[in-house]
Amino acid sequence: MTANLPAAPMLYREFSTQAQIDAQYNPSIALADPAAPGKHFVAQSALARASLKQHLDIPFGATVHETLDIFPADAPNAPVFVFIHGGYWRALSSKEFSGVALGLQRRGITTVVVNYALCPWVTIDEITRQVRAAVAWTVRNIAQYGGDPARFSVGGHSAGGHLTAMCLQTDWARDYGLAPDPIKAALCISGIYDIAPLRYSYLQPMIQLDDGVVRRNSPAYTARACATPTWFTWGGAETSEFARQAQSMHAAWGALGNQSELRPIAGADHFTVLAGFERPEGELCAWLAGQLGV
């Protein structure tokens, strides 16, 4: 008779193996051509830099990686959107995401794309600090580039969705001398708000999570009372964990009485979810325009 073997221990929730976690959190696994999204983003970014007004590589901090690319709207005193790119904190740069300005510029919104240092050369703690510093710099300085700091929004995709949520946790008055809630709208796209499962994923050698990093950088567990209306969204074709991450963050946000919307973008995967920035009528552009009054 064969003895019953004990069940495998769970690494995270119902997942007992790295392969199971990777299947949920590596969005390239299901793609026929994993290089296709990157090629698309590069092409759209080249189009934006060839056709839009721009101020590239504006420093906001002391290190070489702390820069901003600004794409001003045509009209002065325009509302502002700060975009934080993804890449799981260990890849890509602002230059692959100039394309987010294509639709927004035509809606009359000035777009600022943030660059930051990457893991493993820096920690997620340091990336969070850099992004918060970029937001504070932009609030203080965007008027020089035709932007209205009173109509100021922030958003990001994937790791950038996480970093946007981390910005919403910030005590802006205490730490930066700004208004308590300078962000008038926030857009969190396909973000990871409990980063614990990534400790057991293919990403761990590069992002090097430990208990402290997870605790400090999981905004689903550190939400604060905040007046910023927020849309937590993801691609409707993404895995169940990306949906659950958004649902968990939305629940934590709403439990404090904060205003948020929870709604996926139908049919989109982890990469095509950003297409809503490429056309002025796209869902992402339309939502921001509504929040910013343009």
Integer average pLDDT: 96
Major sheet size, sense and barrel closure: 8 strands, mixed
CATH fold field value: Rossmann fold
Structural class: alpha/beta
Per CATH, the class reads Alpha Beta
- CATH superfamily heading: Alpha/Beta hydrolase fold, catalytic domain
CATH architecture verdict = 3-Layer(aba) Sandwich
Q: Total number of helical segments?
A: 10
Give the count of structural domains.
1
Describe the secondary-structure layout:
Blueprint: H1 18-25, H2 36-51, E1 55-59, E2 67-71, E3 78-84, H3 101-106, E4 110-114, H4 124-141, E5 147-157, H5 159-168, H6 172-176, E6 185-189, H7 204-207, H8 211-216, E7 230-233, H9 240-255, E8 260-262, H10 283-292
Parallel strand pairs: 3-4, 3-5, 5-6, 6-7, 7-8
Antiparallel strand pairs: 1-2, 2-4
What would you say this structure looks like, in words?
The protein is 34% helix and 15% strand. The protein has 294 residues and is of the alpha/beta class. The chain has one domain (33-289): Rossmann fold (3-Layer(aba) Sandwich). It has an eight-stranded mixed sheet, sandwiched between helices. Helix 4 crosses helix 5. The protein is globular. The N and C termini lie far apart (73 Å).
Record keyword descriptors for this entry.
single chain, 294 residues, alpha/beta, Rossmann fold, 8-stranded mixed β-sheet, 34% helix, 15% strand, globular
Short note summarizing the structure:
By secondary structure, the chain is α/β, with parallel strands linked by helices.
